[in-house]
Amino acid sequence: MPTASKEETVVVNGIAFGSALSETEDGGGNREITLPVGSDATSWVKTDADTAACDVATASTIATGKVDVWWDVGVRYGVDCVRTGDALALDGGVGDDFPETAEDTCIVAQQVEIDFPVDGDNLVAIAIGCDQVAHLDFQESDDTSIYVLSLEADATWSWFLSSGNANNLSGDPCGKILASNSSSTTAATLKIAYAYDSTT
């Protein structure tokens, strides 16, 4: 049967604090997904908070579709991108306002859609980690966003039922995850593992 466990020890001024969580259920799974590198944006022009244009290298794999746009102090995700030659027209999305100038190094990253037909109400544990800074948008099958998560490189986000913390994935069933990699030089490895009660 799928199991999940978490142990944590914190020491401050010689005083140790610890916790241990464990879950066992009848359903579960794990995924390991490669998130491709993003593309450096040049000739950046901002029209308004959610509209901009830029160029990418001819060899860039960015295509017409949904992208996330990263810069030093922000990210805008779920942006509509239209590519014509090496030029990108960017519009819409959610998150931080586009930066004003090209002084902010922008990276355009294609969203990767990950199948994730899991009802968050049935989860008992989930853990997610990535070796690069990444952004995840958990969505229903009709594209409605359920929960948005930003991950630092080599950090792990987790939730356990026995923690007593709120389950951010509860409510309508999740159908997919839209994820992107903030790096323009290194592909990312995203890992997702979870356990759930399949009888609920």
Task: Supply the number of structural domains.
Answer: 2
Unreliable segments (pLDDT under 50, ≥5 consecutive)?
Answer: none
Q: Tell me, rounded to a whole number, the average pLDDT.
A: 92
CATH topology label of the largest domain: Jelly Rolls
CATH hierarchy class name of the largest domain: Mainly Beta
Question: How many H/I helical runs?
Answer: 0
Largest sheet: 8 strands, antiparallel
Query: Which class best fits the helix and strand makeup?
Result: mainly beta
Strand content: over 45%
Indicate the percent of residues in helices. Answer: under 10%
H/E order of the elements?
EEEEEEEEEEEEEEEEEE
User: Rg, please?
Assistant: 19 Å
Please give the oligomerization state of what you see. single chain
How many β-strand runs? 18
Report the span from N to C terminus: 16 Å
CATH architecture label of the largest domain: Sandwich
The coarse silhouette is globular
Summarize the helices and strands and which ones pair or pack:
Elements: E1 3-12, E2 15-24, E3 27-35, E4 39-40, E5 42-48, E6 51-55, E7 65-71, E8 74-84, E9 87-91, E10 94-95, E11 107-110, E12 112-115, E13 123-130, E14 134-139, E15 145-151, E16 155-160, E17 176-181, E18 188-196
Antiparallel strand pairs: 1-2, 3-18, 4-11, 5-6, 6-9, 7-8, 7-11, 8-9, 8-10, 12-17, 13-16, 13-18, 14-15, 14-17
